[in-house]
Amino acid sequence: MRLFRTTRLAVTAGLAAVLALLTGPVPAQAAEPAWGLVASSCTPPAIAANRAVGIGLVEVEAYWDRYLPSGPGAVDTAYAADLRARVTACLDNGIQVVLGPGTQYPPAWVRGLPGAALVDQRGKSPVTGAIDVVYSAAARQAQDDYLRRLVADLPSARLDGFRVGTSTAGEIGFPGPNEAGDGFLQSWWAFGADAQQGTGLAAGTPVTPMPGWIPGQRTWNGRTVTPAMAQNWFLWYSRSLLYAIKGQVDTLRAAGYTRPVHVPSPGKGVLPADLTTATNALLGGAGDRDGSLGRGLFYVDQFPALAGNVAGPLVVDLTGVDDATAVSARALNPPQDRCAASDATTSVASGTPVQNWSNLRFARAQAARAGLAAVGENPGPPGPETGGTATSDPIAEQIRRSPGYARSCSLIGFFLAFESVLDDPASGVTRQDYVRAVTG
Question: Which interval of the chain is the signal sequence (predicted)?
Answer without folding.
Answer: 1-30
